[in-house]
Each structure stands twice: as C-alpha cells, then as structure tokens.
Amino acid sequence: MLRVGITGGIGSGKTTVCSIFEKLGAPVYYADLKAKELVNTNLELQNKITLAFGHNSFIEGAYNRAFIASIVFSDKEKLKLLNSIIHPFVLNDWGKFCQQYANKTYVLKEAAIMLETESKNSVDYIVLVHSPMELRVQRIQERDGVSKSEIEARINAQMSEDEKLKLADSVIRNDQKHSLIEQVLTLHQKFILL
Ligand code: ATP
What we know:
The protein is α/β, with parallel strands linked by helices. The protein has helices at 14-23, 31-41, 43-53, 65-72, 76-100, 133-144, 148-156, 161-167, 180-193, and strands at residues 2-7, 28-30, 58-59, 62-63, 106-110, 125-130, 170-173.
C-alpha cells in the first residue's frame, strides 16, 4: 500500500484536492484535524503538554488553544517543543489508519507542514498543491474573513513555494488554468498502478 502525502500552504487547496480523491474512494487522513482531536482526547498527550506548558494548558479537559498560542506564537523553541510532543501521537494514529486500510492500493495524509519536518518520512510519495499567492489570499479572505496583510504574514512565515516545489514528488496546480479533476485523476491512475 502506498502512503501519499498531500501538502501545500494555507489556502492552496489541499482539502479541495483531498475531497476529489475521496470521491474516487481513497481514504484521507487529515493530520491537522486529527492533531486537534488528539489534544482534546488523549490523556497521555494532555499530561505531556501540561508538564511542558503548565496547568493552564487545559480548561476542564479542553485544550486551551489561546493560552498555548500565546506562548508558541512568539517563541520558536516553544513551538518546536509543542510539535515534538504532539508529533509522535499523530504518527502513531496515522500508523493505525494505514493498518485499517491495508487492503487499499493507496491512502492519503493531508498536512500543511510536511516537507519542512520529519513528517515527510511518514509517507512514500509527496504531492504539493501549488497555487499563486493572489489566489490563496483571495480564497482565505473569502473563507475566513481575515485581512490581506495577516494572510500574507502567515504565508511568508512558511517555507517558500520554490523550496517546496524542489522537494515534492508531484505538483498539482490549483491556479484556475489547469483542471484540478484531471490532475487528480492522472495521479489516481498512477497510484493504483504503482
Ligand atoms: P488551509 O490549509 O488554510 O485549510 P487548504 O489548502 O486546505 O487551506 P482549501 O480549504 O481546500 O485549502 O481551499 C481554500 C478555500 O478556497 C476554500 O474555501 C475552497 O473552497 C476554495 N478553493 C480552493 N480551490 C478552489 C478551486 N479550484 N476552485 C474554487 N474554490 C477553491
């Protein structure tokens, strides 16, 4: 079974691409959503976060995102620490997901950050969803109602698209010039034959 990673910066269209793969029958593991679920449900993970960041990390068992964000937002080392605590739990959960779908020819893992970290080693093949800056800003503005400068700051804090393009195995261009469905179909054919 082939493990395929789908990555791309915010607003690139990862989730849209994954929903097309899902229609073709491919199971998709949404890593960022799963991480949010795990910090709210896994007691061992919650204990580790509390040990590192203090008892304000949870309010009656619910993850205190605002508190944690206030710490990690301005401190890269703290962000690294948080990720190093959460990452093994997501990895383990992804392993279970792959086992559950062991009869499939391929499964997908969607994550915003993949090429930047050891997370790239949890998949066999990486697809980058690539979209021009103006379109990403426009889509996020429409979806989340945040300001242009805030979105640009978030995009600029991520690894550059040029670097990502060099590291990915395939690229899906979500730029209103290339058909998304055709690009997904081509990859689907490739993955079922690999
Ligand atoms: P994030 O990491 O911020 O969650 P994402 O990479 O998963 O973003 P999507 O949520 O798939 O991106 O897309 C962002 C927004 O743009 C969504 O509202 C989505 O419906 C829209 N969108 C993405 N691609 C297209 C497209 N090809 N045509 C029309 N709308 C699109």
